[in-house]
Design a protein that fits this description.
CATH superfamily: Flavodoxin domain
Structural class: alpha/beta
Helix content: 25-40%
Order of helices and strands: EHEEHEHEEH
CATH class: Alpha Beta
Radius of gyration: 14 Å
Low-confidence stretches: none
């Protein structure tokens, strides 16, 4: 299965996690990893499964590297029908009202353009005791398996 991991980051945590997820999935899949700041909505195609890894910054905002992508999505008439994705969020529950809003916003942008989300959005809490990769690795394996079943491809 072709998998593209796209990340939105402010401080580099989402980038590091995305690269770690890529390393975990490589070998069994054809995996690429890119910053959302380097992706245009028209670059997203239905020939791969997308894993989105996104932090939240400020008052529940998308991180700096995801903002240009979001602005392009808002101003675009691109259709993402046929595109499948899963989303993993990084945040801090000390900011209760805006906890993990960045990943939620990214998922909303994708579905608003017709993309289909596979699995539930999973989030990591920086104030919790778990390491992000301890949650992200099993999540990635599970959503890739779900996508494989859904798309009728070998996991």
């Amino acid at each position: 299965m072709k998998i593209a991991i796209l990340y939105g980051t402010e401080t580099g945590n989402a980038e590091m996690l995305a690269e770690d997820i890529m390393a975990e999935l490589e070998g069994a899949h054809e995996v690429t990893c890119a910053n959302l700041s380097d992706i245009a909505p028209a670059d997203i195609s239905d020939d791969r499964f997308y894993l989105l890894v996104c932090s939240t910054y400020g008052d529940g905002d998308l991180p700096a590297s995801a903002q240009p992508f979001a602005e392009s999505m808002d101003g675009s008439d691109v259709s993402l029908a046929g595109v499948h994705f899963a989303v993993f969020g990084l945040g801090d529950s000390e900011y209760d009202e805006t906890y993990n809003n960045g990943s939620f916003r990214l998922a909303e942008l994708m579905t608003a353009k017709g993309a289909t989300q596979i699995g539930e959005r999973v989030v990591h809490d920086a104030s919790g005791s778990d390491l992000a990769e301890d949650i992200a690795f099993p999540w990635a394996e599970a959503v890739v398996a779900q996508a494989s079943e859904h798309l009728g491809q070998a996991a």
